[in-house]
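Hey,
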Amino acid sequence: MTADLVDAMQLGLVRRSVSTLRLGTVSSVGSSGAVVAFDGEAASGREYPVLSGVRPLAGDRVALARAGSTWLVVGLLNVTPFEAVESLQTGQGTTSATSPTNGSPVAGVAFKAPRSGQVTVSINSDLDAPSGGFMITGWRVRTGSTIGAGAIVASTQQGDPGSRSGNGRFGHGSSTRLLGGAPRTLVSGLTPDADYNAAFYYYVTTGSGTFRTRSILVEEG
């Protein structure tokens, strides 16, 4: 078999592959798939099935592959993969609050929810508890991009919306110092591409406590 013949065969395969792949824009997403307007055409209103793991939203550019008598949405063209966000702060602060407060300076991160609608949150903090009391820290995930503000959607504080009390929260007492961490905790049910923020909270049972080095990490769940 000559090199020219091999090249010709490969070119034919490429052409056939291209002929079974089309691009378009998602008009809407329904229970059975995505309504797509193919490039150069108007949307027909027909829902095309979506490959598992692909999560299109209205306005997304997508690639579709021929699948029998229909087209299958196989990929997103304009979506940036979620990248972990982390904040490390060394500013010292104190609190005498006996209910959860952000502390000052506020420590946290802002992020856009991934297409999966799930993230994990983990924290580390250096604490000094008050003499004869306890200091507790944890995290809250809120709506919006302003760190420490917005409606709470998930939290390690008992009684909060989406509470995961006891998971991702820690504290200590007897006026000792602790550099400790809390386990990664899954937060689900977020709205894809919406703005959220995750931030520390602190409080004490008595007296005044001190926080120092703090880190918070948000990853896709």
